[in-house]
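Sample A.
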Amino acid sequence: MKKILLGAMVMMLATAALFAAGQITRERAMEIALADAGVSAEGASFVRSHLDRERGREVYDIEFYIDNMEYDYEIDAATGEILSVDRDAEYWGKTSDATIGEDEAVRIALEDARVDETQSMRVRLDRDDWRLEYEVEFTTADREYEYTIDASSGRILETDVERRTVSTEGGITIKEATALVLDRLPDGATADDIRIRSDRDDGRVVYEGEAWYDGYEYEFEIDAARGRFTDWERERW
């Protein structure tokens, strides 16, 4: 029995060795992709180059950027044949981390929304596809605004505006719900750290939202009729 198992293992290792010997290298796959794209390795920024299995055969997935163009290649690992190519224009490049600043991002969003006074404000710098963006979220008495702004140029990339619903069925007000959240947050937090809205859940009015303070993100839900928390979660931001 041991001899049979040993023989099977030897055959498996021999087959794997022969298979590996028949494969092109990852570096060769990258060269094939670059040659097809007509670019040099010096000008390319590689994001991904790994061996994968697609439709029962080994392939190399190669992804790289040149200026504002993204290239995605799928190359047969045994033959070096290009199986698929995808080229997309992307807003990408070797940009600096210089930004317009939070205050300017807020000014741009408020000016576009034609809003002078807000009830809450949240600004966060994030990176999406190697581009720095400001996410600006704020509320007024009757609306919620979400803006995505290019942190380098100040260009507005995305806008979302929703009308807020406020309970008229008794219970606590949205201002009182905000105060309840503040009571649970660490000292120093303010209403500007909270984003809250009213909604309906199984026929009852609830206040739900998020808060960001001191490196943590909080998610909550409050029963508007009773003024009690029905959900409270915290995780590292």
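Sample B, a different protein:
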Amino acid sequence: MFVTPMSKKEIEEYIATGEGRDKAGSYAIQGIFGKYIEKYEGDYDNVVGLPGKRVKEELWQWCIS
């Protein structure tokens, strides 16, 4: 995860939103903090949380076997 450098004011403003209080790492790429994400590597769904496409594929394979 590559985060754009943030000023002290931006950090304080983000903290004041409360968004990070219930998040691992105190941010959500799909939320307010997303504007500070410069780049990420890997599957977006995995970065967000549950890799939906992979779960669907695994369940499908499990059901047909």
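Observation for Sample B: The first helix runs from residue 8 to 17.
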